[in-house]
Amino acid sequence: MKKHIIPIILLGYFGLLFLLLIGLETYWYLYEKPQSQPIAFSHQIHVLKMTLPCDLCHMYATKSISAGIPSVSKCMDCHRAIATDKPEIKKILKYWQNRKPIPWVRIHSLPDFVYFSHKRHLKMGIDCSECHGDVKAMATIRKVRSLKMGWCITCHKSRSAPTDCLTCHK
Amino acid sequence: MLIVDKYILPPSPEHFLILKYILILMLMIHLPFVSMLIGGTFFSVVFNILDKKKQNRIYLNFANDLIDTVAVNRSVGFILGVVPMLVVTLIYTQILYTVNVSAVNFLIYSLILLLLGFTSLYFYKYTFHLREAVFGVHIFSGILGIIFFLAAYFIFSISFSLLLDPGEWRFVKNPVELISYWNAVSKYLYFIVSSLAITGGGILFFFFHWSERKIDHDSEYSGFIKNFGLILALIFTLLQPVLCLWNLATLPEIAISQEVFGFSAIALFLSLVISYMLCAMLKNPEKKLGVHIFSLFLLTFLITALNDQTTFYNTIKEHIVLMAVRAEGLSSELKIRELTGAAEEAQVNVKKGEMVFNSICSACHSFDRRAVGPPFKMVLPKYQNKEDELKTFVRNPSKKNPGYPSMPKLGLKEDEIASVAAYLLQRLQTESQKQDISK
Fold first, then answer.
1. Which domain holds residue A111?
2. What are the alphabetically sorted keywords of the record (chain A) (predicted)?
3. Residues of B numbered 259-278 whose beta carbons fall under 8 angstroms of chain A's beta carbons: which are they?
4. Do A109 and A146 lie in a common domain?
5. What string of DSSP letters covers A31-85?
6. Distance (Å, rounded) from C-alpha B417 to C-alpha B415?
7. How far apart are CA A77 and CA B334, in angstroms?
8. H-state helical runs in B96-218
């Protein structure tokens, strides 16, 4: 037993660290890994290639606190005629025919106790990419900013925007 | 970002890949050398001072041999220490073309501190034989060298940490602002711990395998060095994985991918094997495992470099796509110029318009049939000789035909609007001429 004490201690120590690594990976896999969407929608094609503006689909961004996810009929406005033979577009058609919304997986979400208005930020001339990154270059949407309070405050301070608690916590 | 941006061309995706591997190669050449340099100089200064206090011949010999071994000479210091760092800075400048981040400026500060560090360190090395006469200046230069090196790599680590969090790029203008940033702190501590661990491994390799002439006649001295190298390497090899995990836990979400966990698992496994070998050598000092241990340390550095560059490339995924578009745009513009001749500006404009038409307008419009939007032959005639009106419409479309959905406002640049309008009107002319002939 005494002969094997060092390998046992080493294995115990590194085994614990391996468990920690697996724990970190599991957490990332469950909560942080970019989720796959029901339809492989590419912002790269729509925004970077076709130069469509963000508010063509997220049409409430300039008018309301939520930017809004486009309805199936919005997709169909164009895809009634465009790329109708592509498998991903056929999926939209199916949702349209079944009169069902597309169950998009939400990537950017703030806690309920945070009041955030898209309209107010856009009115100040803040570009969508400040908070969402270069979405136009994303084949699959992903979160590229922490969207945590410290980050919001840093930006508010840099623009001399209010940092009073009540600004975001109504 | 930097003044050099205007002299750099946007890199293509293949170019990004080559840069990634050159970066890894440069870091592989540079970091093990400089890590041993920092650890070796630190212990050389410590044993130098200890000898002054306790008058121990072993301490003095070790201080001298250690600095001789790790610093080699000025040429090696320049080739392995300064040149790769310069290349790394230039590569980051190229990769981060047009990105508004201060990290490249920080790397330049780091390079300056590194040069000051090398100057102080070689002063320390070359004044060793004069230490009795100028002990204060000699030790001070050694300490100053370590301070410069620690500051240089502090800035290097935190710059790299900053690169992994684009949310902070716009705000951080001073490296000191990142002191409270956990990922930066963990990266720096990982670097220090790895430096001390590889210094231990380097002592075992360079004193017992690379050149044995300094110690082979003195068993007391060689026993002391072996024990010191083993204990130093073991303590910091055991600490290394803790910091590796801390660094992983503090990485921004955007930088993480499955490969990052894979590299961390390999690094952990390597640390386990190294620790086991070190324990075996501590138990039986006759075992000659120095070469294996040192090679495994180098492999750990390679894995860390691969891991770091993977996290960096995960972060700049979108930037790579945007640069690819710019590089492609630039090359097609050059191609058009080559085809048409630089003088024919108008022709270049029409060619560019055709490209805009093919990549954007043609998704919804055709010349002679209905698609999402109306056919051009139906809507364009009213703009004949009214190019400005057409440009105004493209710039700011409004609903004109009740049978079609309204055209969205496209994100076209002014020169693209002008060229597509010129192309459309010229095409309209060509198409009507064709029709006239066929009639």
1. 34-69+104-168
2. Electron transport, Heme, Iron, Membrane, Metal-binding, Transmembrane, Transmembrane helix, Transport
3. 261, 264-265, 268, 271-272, 275-276
4. yes
5. IISPPPPSS---HIIIIIIT---HHHHSTTTTTSSS--PPPHHHHHHHHTTSSTT
6. 5
7. 37
8. 103-126, 135-163, 166-169, 182-205
**Spatial distance between the Cα atoms of B70 and B77, rounded to a whole number of angstroms:** 9
CA distance A97 to chain B (A): 19
Tell me, yes or no, whether A26 and A38 share the same domain.
no
> Do B318 and A49 lie within an 8 Å CB cutoff?
no
**Is A96 part of a structural domain of the chain?**
no
Do A17 and A52 lie in one domain? The reply is: no
* Closest residue in B to A25 (Cα–Cα): B261
Q: Which of A47, A49, A144 sits opposite B254 (nearest CB)?
A: A144
Closest-CA residue of chain A to B261: A25
**Mean pLDDT per segment of 10 residues, for chain B of length 439 residues?**
62 88 93 94 93 86 90 86 92 86 88 94 90 88 95 92 89 83 92 95 86 66 90 95 95 93 96 94 84 94 95 93 84 67 66 82 80 82 84 84 78 84 84 71
* Separation in Å, CA of B371 to nearest CA in chain A: 6
Residue A133 lies in a domain: yes
Q: Does one domain contain both A41 and A61? A: yes
Distance from CA of A113 to the nearest CA of B (A): 22
- A45 and A7 within one domain: no
What pTM did the predictor assign?
Answer: 0.85
Taking Cα atoms as reference points, which of B85, B68, B86 lies closest to residue B34? Answer: B85
Whether A88 maps to a domain, the answer reads no
* Residues A120 and A163 reside in one and the same domain: yes
Determine the residue of chain A that is closest to B177 in CA distance: A154
Which of B168, B279, B322 is nearest residue A10 as measured by Cβ atoms? Answer: B279
- A50, A112: one domain: yes
Mean of the pLDDT values across residues A94-106? 93
A42 part of a folded domain: yes
